[in-house]
Each structure stands twice: as C-alpha cells, then as structure tokens.
C-alpha cells in the first residue's frame, strides 16, 4: 500500500450511508458489550482456555537454513515442591525473551527440565516417611526408600510442569529432561570417567562441610550462617533441649618451662573440640607472648589429654580475638586445618559421622558433642582451668537442609581439581568471549575463580547419581588395590585387570553419590545429547539466565566443564537476576510467614486458604511444629485479608516491572493487584475501540491510500507516542531492561492512549464524522501495535484482545516519531492538568457548566494554544473554551469563579453557573496568582541563566537543551 495518503472520494457517501446503521448499533450496545468480550477483565476465564494453546510441543515444521536460532535452558527447579516466586521471576524473564525473539523471526529452543536435588529431596521424603509411618530410611532399606522418592518425583514433576504452563511459558516440551534420566545419567558417568582418567578427579582425605544429621558432606551453598548476638539457644537435631551458643570460653593451658607455674589463656567458642587440639597459636608480634619467642620449643600441657602440645607462632592468628591465643584443632576447623598443614601437625579426629565422641577419647567416648561440651566445662572448672566465660557475637554455620549445626570433618572424599579449570573460565570473561550482565558481577566471578579450591563432589546419600568408581583389590596381595572409573562392573573389572596385572581380583562400587551441582553443571552438554551424538545443533546456548546467588555454584561450573569437554563456553551471555523478597525487603522464609506462591497470586487465596496450606505442609512433614506456628503468625500479619486474585498476566507484568538486575527484588501483592487494574483499563479501551470499529465497519477498505496530511496534530502525536513506546520496548528487551519496557507500556496505555487520545475521539466517532473514521482507525492501529509488542509480557490478555481489534491499514509506525510535536502536545497537556487540578480543588463539576477562559502570555503561546481548544475542552471537561492574549492583569474578568496560572504559556480562569454554591466559591486568587507568577519568573530566570552557561551547552543532551530553549523562547515572546 502506498504511503502518500488521501481520503477516498466516496468516503463522504460512506459516512452518511452508515450513520443510521451505526446509531442503531450505538444505542443497542451503549459501549458496554461487544460480542465475545466480557464487560470486565476476568483473567481466570481468559487464561483457562489458552494455556495449552500457548505451549509449544516442539518444532513440528522444517526450519529453513537461513532462519536464525536462539537457544536457552530453563534452570531446572528442584523436585522438592511447587514453584516459588524466584522460579516465577526466572521463568517469566526467559519467556519474555523467548517470545520477543520469536516475534523477530528466530527459531527458538527453550529447554525445560527438573533437577533431582539430592540432599533436598532426600531430606523432604525422609520427613514425609517419618510423619506418615514413623519410619526412617534405614528402617526400610535403600531400595524401598528410592522407590518412595521416585513416586515423589513423579508427583512433583507434574506439579512443576503445571505451574510453568500456568505461567504461560512457551517451552520446548518435546526436549524435556530429568537429571536422573538414563541419557543424563550416562553423560554424568562419562564426564566423571574422563575427568578421573585425566587425573582431575582423585580420592583424598581433606576437611569438608559435614552434617551429622544427614551423615553426609554438603556443599558450601547449603551452609547458612546464623548471626548470634550473645548467648542464644538454638534447636539442634538429636537433642531434647536447645543448645546455647554465643559464648567465649577462656581456658588456661599450663606452660612446661623448668617447672614454673605459668599459663597461657586460650579463647575458644568450641570447647567440645578441645580433645582434638594439636597446638596453641599466637601472633608472632603479639607483645603479650613475645617472651616465649626466645625460648626453644615451648610446650603446653593439654588440660584434658595430659599430653604436651607445642606453642606456635603464625601471622594468621587474630591478636584481637579474645586473649589472642587460640587452640589449633585441624580436624574440625578450616583455618586450623591450613595452619596445621603449614606447621606439619597431624590432626586428631574427635567426632564420629553422627556427632558422637570417638572411642579414642575414653572419658567422653560415644557421647553427643554438645553434651560433652558441658562435661568438659565442668571438669575444667573443677581443675580451676576455666578462667572466664563471656558473651560473644558470632556466626554459627548451619546445614540449611537439616538445620543441624555444621561440623567440619576430615573425610576421604572424591575431589575435582578446579584451579586450572577456574582460570580457564575466568579467561573467557576477561577476553570478552563470555559476557556477564550486569557487569558488576565480573568482580565476583574473578574472586571465585582466580583461586578456586578443589571441589568435593561426593555425598553420602542414597538419592542421586551413584559414583561410577570401583575399588579393585588383588586377593592374593592384600595391600594391592586401585580405584577405577567405569560405566559398569564388567568395564571396571577389565580396567582393574590391566592395572593390577592379576586375575584374582574383587571389585566393589563406591556407595556414595555425586554432588547435585556436578550433574547440573553438565546440563548444556547432556541435554544436547553429549557424548553420544553431534551436539552442534544444540550447543552452545545463546543465553543462560538465573539468580546471581548461584553464579559460582552452577554457572561457573557449567563453563568449567563445557570448556574441558568441548573447548567452547556453553553459552555466550550470562544474565543474572536478583533475589525475590517481600514488600518490606525481607527474604522469604517459613519463620516470617511471608512466602508467596505464584499460584496464590494468580488465583487469589483467602487467609483461611493460606493457613490450610501451611497446615498441609506440616501434615506432610515438610514443616515442623515450631516452623508451622511461626508461619501461621507471619501469614496472618502479612495478609490479614488474604491475597486478591491477580491473574497470570498481572503477575508476569509486575515481576518484569522491577529492575531484574538489582541485588534484591521486593515483590508487593498490592502492586500486582494494581497492575490487574491497569490491564482492565486496556480491556475497557479495547471494548470501546472494538465496538466503534464494528459500528463503523472499519477495515482496510476504508482507505485507498494513507497520507499524513489528512491527520490532525493529535493523530500524529499518538502515532509518535506509539513509535516512541515500541522503540523503547525493543531497546529495553535487547538490553534486558524489562522494567523500562513495562513503564513505557504503562505510560502509553494509561496517559497517552486512554486518558488523552481516546477521550478526544469519542465525539467524532459517535457522530461518524470523517475525523471519527480516521481516529477509530488510528485507535485500532495503536491498540494492535502496542498489544503485539506487549504480548511477550502479558500473553493471555493480548492474544484475546487482538482477536477483536481490526487492522485497517499497515503502517511503518517508526516514521511518525516527532519529538517537537510531542513537546508541543506535552505543553498543552500540562495546561489541561493545571486546569483539572484547579477544578478539583474548587469542586467544580459538569453540572456547574464550567466556562474556561485561557489567557496566553505571548503571541507564540497564543498561536500554540489556538489549534487545540477543542481537545482542551474535552480533556478539561469544560463546556466552552475562550482564548485571549494577556497583556496586563486588568484584562482578567471580575466574574471568574477561580483563577490560576498554567506554567509559562498561559493563565486561566473558570466561570460557573448559579448552581455553584456561594460557600464553595474560591477566595479571590490575585495574591495566589501573583505568587505563582513570581515563582514562574524566577523559574524562567533560572532556565535563561542555565541556557547561557557554556558548560551546560557542552554537557547537556540535545533533548534537554531543546526543552530549555523552548521555555526561554516563550518568555522572550
């Protein structure tokens, strides 16, 4: 269709021919109902019928070679429950990105899946087993317990899949995986075998994070630090009463030096580990202990073991901690482990895997560690060796899964050497081959990877990928044994035969499982078919999007393993989002009762419903009694009236309305409900336009050609605002600034389209004037274009409304952008706003037949206001508008009900009829007006001064300079 526009010669005939028909239609519908469109926006009804349609089942069509591709992986949710708001945020961000790429013509692959979540799943199923049957996993055995977990998995995967579909996610469901599928398991085993045979995986004795409740090593990410401010009672699994933490114990160690009675007082928060002391350490420059530096090999008598231990000097010791002297217990402390290794001191193990004292320490053997603590303190007191006990602030390491107090233990485990792998991953970012967004996290990336310690990848669990390692022993030579890695026992036996050079061999598979992060770090490879087939079609991904809290634990490890196995990073960009908190900025937790599920926001939930869900979690064994009570109190405080129904689109729009790159994202249900009202505003606008288009029979045939000369300034203005909004949206999506896009849509629909342009068109559309046809068509264009671009954010309502909005003509909207026209209309709208505010303050309504008088401050202002009097009348809800040039205040009529200024362009007054009550009449506004004029003059003086400043002319943008120039010009006129 040609771009030069002219109205058809037959258009006038068409108008009057349709007038009668349209009036009948108008009287029938009265703008309240359109076939197929409800009177109000009801998200539940709209979304119910669209969810299945909106989900891809895979690409069933042949993709052309030249079609660009976009690949992404959904971070797999754990099968420990339904999706939480953090999942909803990630899924929404990724769905918006994928839908945008699809609109641009990309072939999009977005792979869904779920993670087996070794420790988390085992813990929650154990709780359920205990709650339902009063059984532990050991009571039913490994095989039956694993069957229970697989049942749990099937139920939870179905729930997660439903939750993702409820969010409207267009995932490639035909590519769905589970991290313990056979193909996934084979890839995990193959990766372990290759790394083992390259010497990167080895079995070592080293200090690990240990959960006595789980009897397993745990990851750093599963360690929570509890801030303790002085003596605090903490519940610990396995103990009948709470254990007190937050105390510093000062204990005297006797110095053996020519028989003199001298002591060094040692400060510790953990007296129960004293049984494992191998030395006492002080800072070499601590003056309190400088005299001992001159002595050769100072020794101290251990207060409990009655053995000699050395006094050592090390700069790592903090002289400000307690007395400045600390005990070195390398088997149960990270720092002590490093110091002992440096000074060649052998560690002494104190506790068993269950947290009981070992039999070697006979006096306290087989007793729980925190029971032994009190017994040790009592014995030290009896010997006058307990010098003092002081309140102490500390961070207590806890296992996030079992809520047990963490114990550091020296255990034989499988470790992956990460130093070189980490440097390789660091190099990818430093070279620019891999981009982190936002870039501020590059510092975090460097901090983790430039000195990356070995990764403990084994866990003492039943649920997970069993480590494909076998211990082979030569039966004829007892000391002759070797570890081999293999896919099965037969392959392991063949490898062992070659290494041991014997046929009399027995092999045993390691019972431990791999850290869940190991299998998830392989996902870009394993879900692409590695190592069994060519992966170029699916690897690498274009983008990985996830929370910044797992940048190292997942993202960095994916890069490490991707590089070692393919020589290529598994993705080109890393987009990190913030952590979702409640409206007050608090992390969501059971104890606060502020956890919100996406489904509760989408469907709404009464306070009773929220309480029932908490009780159900308690009944299932997920929450204990204390957590349940705290949650019930918290939810009553947070949501006394429950959570209102908001719908999926409002939830998605709200999540994207925040700067996703911020460290924390505060989610407020009230804001979500407000966005539901915003969508209802769009719904009502669409009903009006659809009814008008139907009545006027708007279609492409209405225009033969389309020419800008037929359009009014307001028509061109709304098209300019549309062009600006669409450009802002596209740029925001490309830069992952989704909140700029949502803000742009809100301004366009609320301020520009609904509150302004649509209001100015109603009378012309009602009268079926030629302008009405043009304006109705432009309304259709604006709605269709904006809805199409907003569809990635709010797919359900947009898809529904687009069915009812005709496309009368195809336009290149971008060419209508006009900044100077927008500035002109903005000035008019500012005048209208001032008039509405004055009417509101003086309680003037239509029944008072308001008569508006505008007084232009200059000829230029007069010429600018003149073409817009009709729109000003409509937007200010006044009956008549009169425009004059103001030369002095004496021109202002005495009969004005109220009078004010509207910025640098004009002043205005309003005349009302006799109905306007005498007591409501405004006090003469002369003084108020003079005050406003004085302020205006000062403002204009400030603009003039700034305009004349050379520094401002150099640094300010052209847009800002133009604004200043216009205001100064009006003042001069």
Automatic annotation (TrEMBL):
One GO BP annotation of this record: valyl-tRNA aminoacylation
Entry keyword set: Aminoacyl-tRNA synthetase, ATP-binding, Ligase, Nucleotide-binding, Protein biosynthesis
The keyword Amino-acid biosynthesis is annotated on this UniProt entry: no
InterPro entries per record: aa-tRNA-synth_I_CS (IPR001412), aa-tRNA-synth_Ia (IPR002300), Anticodon_Ia_Val (IPR033705), M/V/L/I-tRNA-synth_anticd-bd (IPR013155), Rossmann-like_a/b/a_fold (IPR014729), tRNAsynth_Ia_anticodon-bd (IPR009080), Val/Leu/Ile-tRNA-synth_edit (IPR009008), Valyl-tRNA_ligase (IPR002303)
Claim: Transmembrane is one of the keywords in the record: no
Gene3D superfamilies membership: HUPs, Isoleucyl-tRNA Synthetase, Domain 1, Valyl/Leucyl/Isoleucyl-tRNA synthetase, editing domain
Entries under Pfam families matching the protein: Anticodon_1 (PF08264), tRNA-synt_1 (PF00133)
Domain called Aminoacyl-tRNA synthetase class Ia: residue spans: 62-659
A molecular function GO annotation: ATP binding
SUPFAM superfamilies: Anticodon-binding domain of a subclass of class I aminoacyl-tRNA synthetases (SSF47323), Nucleotidylyl transferase (SSF52374), ValRS/IleRS/LeuRS editing domain (SSF50677)
PANTHER family, A to Z: VALINE--TRNA LIGASE, VALYL-TRNA SYNTHETASES
Protein family (similarity comment): Belongs to the class-I aminoacyl-tRNA synthetase family.
Protein name: valine--tRNA ligase
Organism of origin: Glossina pallidipes (Tsetse fly)
